[in-house]
Amino acid sequence: MMAVLSGVLSLFTLSDGYLAAMRAYPSQGRVLSLTDVPQERSTQTLSALMNSVAQARTVVVRSDVLVSPVEGSVEGYRLGVYGDVAAHPDEMAFRYQGADVLDAKLLSRLLQSDADATLGLDRVSADMVASLPSARFGARLVVVQLDALVRGSGTVNGDYRIIGLDDAGFRSLVQQVSEASGVDADRLTSPLHGSSTEDSFMRLIVLVLLVVAAGALMLLSVLGAFQEFSRLGVHLLLGWSRLGYAARIYRSLLVCSLVVMVVPFAVTLWGMEGFPLTVQLAVAGLAPGVMVVGIVLAASALGSLVLLSVRPVAAIRNRVSKKALLVVIAVVYVLASAGLVAGAHALDAPMNEVSKLGQVSTRWSRYDSLRLLYKDSRGTNHTESSGLSGDHMREIYDWYTSIEGKDGVYIANTRHFDADLLAQWKGLYEQVPEQAFWYFITSPNYLKDQGFDLDPDAAARAEAGERMFLIPDTMDTAEQERMRGYLTETSMKHKDWTSSIHTTFMDTGKIGFATYHPSTPLFTWSDDLSQPAETTDPVILVATGADMTPFEAESLGATGLTNSYVKLSEAAAQRYLAAIYLAKYQLEDNNPIYRPASDFIAGLRKSLTEFIQLFGGVALLAALFQLVGMATLCRIYAATYRETIAVKRLLGYSLMGIFAPAFVMVAAMSAMSILAAVLIGSTAGIAATAMMLVFQLILLTVQSRTLSSGQVQAMIKSE
């Protein structure tokens, strides 16, 4: 157990070191700090910075904290890079534990790739150009192009390191950025902020478990030495030395500690994903094994001191206080039980999160195979200014309406409007809902396949071009009225947009409403884990090609997990994305790529899996420690009263009667632990103490039977 714990502790230590190395990268260069840049100046500021870097053939790197989507802690860094990295190979090299993490060649490959390309897994696995080493349960690094980092973060503000400029060149760059941003040049070179990102909570938990395990080993070693007094006396009569006897009884423990040195080494190598085996990493992996050997040596030394300090006569007569030993055993068990409750309570929130995340992962797995638009290539009618031309949007609309309602062809787009956003809408619209709500845009066949009881009349009206909205009947009357007013106003505004796409609704302007009773959970398609994975009461637009406004019709070509509209099954994708079918709608030159939903949540799923593995492993180790301690204490009790146990067993006493103190202690302490867990409101504590009560009673029954039989056999042989 200590070997595993020391390996995990080493892994967390290496992870923290990796984070520190990321934070310091690149180690050379001058810092340009952009703060309080107005949003309207963001584009020109970034352009000025990138133009200056390009002209000077230098490199700029911005480092943003990478926050875990699971529990919100710092899990690494996302770097944005731009410039002539090939001209600065030494400055751009990043090494950790003797391994190459980044180099100029890899960064050049990134900069020559698509705009959304990444080094290391971010969210979408298809964007990853190459993987980067990472620490399991800890630090990971993602590198993107600088403009993609700014676009994704939504701000140009941040700290930038400029590589390869002399003093004059740096002053010139600062001046150009200052003019573009409107921020004084002195402020750009004098950052007024800092950060500390070390997250040592899990390392603290593992360290506490390791300290407790080491203390328990030393205590049990000392108690075990007292139990050896009678046998030591016999060996002393036979001519053994006390040191020789100590070496005999602790030799197997020392040999075992040497053997298990491979365990923390294996844990370290397993946890440092993508890192090659280097001398530095090998040393880091072997160090915790050496620490375990040191702990075992210390425990053996303490036990040996007890054996060396006893007088021969006392050893021969087995003069040891049984009551004192039992008091020590009882105290240790009480402390262990208290530790179990405290530990379970500390893990209460994380384990609740694990349970919730497990459900999220399970729900996502139902939609893994559905394919979403990842990207399409520039065709002959692709414009530079807007990204999509009117002709291309119409082609996508025509393609979709040709397959609308077919098996495996769906529309599903969801958005959550919170109270803050609704407050901002007041004054923009005549009527604004007051309660936060989910808004779903879904095709009729999608709702049916999700088990939603869609009224055939509502579906028919939507297919005829009437814009049909479904409002949950649990919404109060006044809120329903506000919702109808808002949906009507926005629909009519969107209807009048200029567009190359024309629908039936744009001619008729007919809007219909119906209520439904919430009962069917509908997937929210949200990658925000703070939002529920399912909801039963969204406001739903029954979307068809006929009742769309230009807003929905032109969004059919949207890409990504949360933005995309069209979802295809694998069979539908094979059929309707074939070049011969796309050619009917002039889309063959665009080569649209639809990828499974699982590709879009690869980073999220990796974080979920590691979080569940981590806390599940810690909980398992804590329970195992309690069981091992219980078994050891039971053996000490049996050794202390071996003669009494053997006699009572021969006289026909039941195991419950012989080991009554142990059974009473387990039952009483477990009851008190459960009560304590109830009083502090710890769900994990109640579950852990209840399960441990069952396991301990089973283990105690097995141990008592085995030990009592052994004592009887030993007494018979001695006679």
TrEMBL record:
UniProt keywords, alphabetically: Membrane, Transmembrane, Transmembrane helix
Annotated transmembrane regions: 201-226, 247-270, 290-313, 325-347, 614-638, 650-668, 674-700
The protein's name: Amino acid ABC transporter permease
